[in-house]
Amino acid sequence: MTIKELIDQFDLTHTHTLVLQGESLVFEKVGDSNKRASVYVWVANKAGSDYRVLYVGKAGKGVHLRCTQHVGGFVNSGTGRKNASELKRYLNDGYDVCVYARESSVMEIFGETVSLYSAEEDALCAALSPVMNRAVFPAVDARTDKESVVQSATTAGASMEVVGYLINGRLVQSTAVSTDDLSAQLDAYTDDQRLSVKKLLTHLETHLEPEHRAKLIGGYSGQPKGCSGRTTLTYAIPGPSGRMGAGTWKARVYFGDQPRVGFPLARLKSTARGKVDIAESADTFSPQSTDDFIEHPNDYLV
Predict the structure, then answer these.
(1) What does pTM read for this prediction?
(2) Is residue 135 pLDDT above 50, yes or no?
């Protein structure tokens, strides 16, 4: 099968090309790419030789964001660093490495329209046998003793098992897209950023009431600067229908390029207004420095 036949058979489009800039790997965008759930393939090709399918993945918020997360993982993740070494080997051997993607199909299940991107990823892996696929991202479903989790949350080295426990201890609602994107973003974070997430979730855990539960979604609009459209964990109180009750939310964690936290504007100390971003329309504020909030929460909250 030629690359053209591969593209035609699976309805793929060339979206990015991998290049080496100094010692860093960068995905250069080729044309437009959407922000919808998709699957993608890394393909290595050298003139006069057969191509090789290196990797198959899924992208809940579009391939460009996922490529950006991979770049972070190449530096910050053990698995990502292994992938980077392998990709550099192909580039140094004269291969072109390109990303081909397709927007995934959707299906109505139980009255809800859902993306089939996870199923398409499995099918592409079975059909193409990518040479680099492995379990890449940390699971967000670990369990451990709560008291030991809280005690260990300030030690050096961020533990994704701790983060997984703290999220799942209250999680009652999520989507496949939001869960996958959270795992990808955690993988792209630096150790310091992961430690900030762990400390932040631990702080929230010790200040939430037992009835508070968590919802993980793809993102809200109208949030403080830099927080809109980010995968978001919201803590609120479910109503009788199971949906989060209006006006009951207590905190939000935004998993963007930097982890951020948000609170109802009514909880903002007037003396802290210069250190926060405010979304008046959403009655929400977010400390500009998550680490400063973690160290001095009483400077921000009433």
Answers:
(1) 0.74
(2) no
